[in-house]
């Protein structure tokens, strides 16, 4: 019978997420996660095997939550263009509400790792594809997508990730909103 964990796993994961998100994987040590969460290094290793194991568990949960956000945002609006606008508005609001404008753990991780960790990049690719598929399903048949739904969906996702990157530069929300609206208007005019 497996031993139950004798620590607050939710607190550990939230603490580790904060460090990985704000500082990146390489600049985060298990020692600082242990100290901040009150969970001993040995307990972390017993539960997750390694810093990488802890990161992957957290990153997978984070990626799943991003797909859910896209799914929810794209389900709103009467017309596909309204859903695109809502999705970009949700992205901007999420960025503005992040402490220290940390951006997106997915985008940050892609930038940090490049192709150096195949399991991390495989999860990032699957997540981007899943988000693109959600967008593609919603815009299918829209005049602005006209038989190129996958390409337009990938472009919409790319714009959202660009907005996230700009938010890390402390670009004011109203400027991000202006960029999103200018982009949406090009789709609407198509």
UniProtKB/TrEMBL annotation:
State the Gene Ontology terms under molecular function: DNA binding
Under the heading Pfam families, the entry gives: TetR_C_13_2 (PF21993), TetR_N (PF00440)
Q: Where's the DNA-binding part?
A: 29-48
SUPFAM superfamilies xrefs: Homeodomain-like (SSF46689), Tetracyclin repressor-like, C-terminal domain (SSF48498)
Q: Which PROSITE patterns match?
A: HTH_TETR_2
**Does the keyword field hold DNA-binding?**
yes
- rRNA-binding listed as a keyword: no
Query: In what residue span(s) does the HTH tetR-type domain sit?
Result: 6-66
| Alphabetically ordered keywords of this record | DNA-binding, Transcription, Transcription regulation
Write down what this protein is called.
TetR/AcrR family transcriptional regulator
* Taxonomic placement: Bacteria, Bacillati, Actinomycetota, Actinomycetes, Micrococcales
């Amino acid at each position: 019978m497996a031993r139950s964990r004798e620590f607050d796993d939710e607190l550990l994961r939230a603490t580790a997420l904060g460090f990985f998100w704000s500082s990146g994987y390489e600049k985060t040590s298990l020692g600082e996660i242990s100290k901040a969460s009150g969970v001993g290094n040995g307990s972390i290793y017993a539960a997750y095997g390694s810093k990488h194991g802890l990161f992957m568990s957290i990153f997978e949960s984070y990626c799943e939550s991003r797909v859910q956000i896209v799914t929810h945002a794209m389900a709103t609006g009467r017309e596909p263009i309204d859903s695109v606008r809502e999705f970009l508005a949700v992205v901007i609001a999420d960025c503005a509400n992040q402490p220290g404008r940390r951006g997106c753990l997915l985008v940050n991780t892609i930038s940090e790792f490049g192709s150096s960790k195949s399991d991390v990049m495989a999860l990032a690719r699957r997540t981007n594809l899943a988000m693109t598929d959600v967008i593609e399903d919603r815009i299918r048949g829209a005049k602005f997508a006209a038989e190129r739904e996958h390409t337009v969906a990938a472009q919409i996702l790319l714009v959202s990730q660009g907005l996230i990157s700009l938010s890390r530069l402390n670009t004011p929300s109203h400027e991000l909103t202006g960029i999103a609206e200018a982009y949406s208007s090009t789709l609407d005019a198509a």
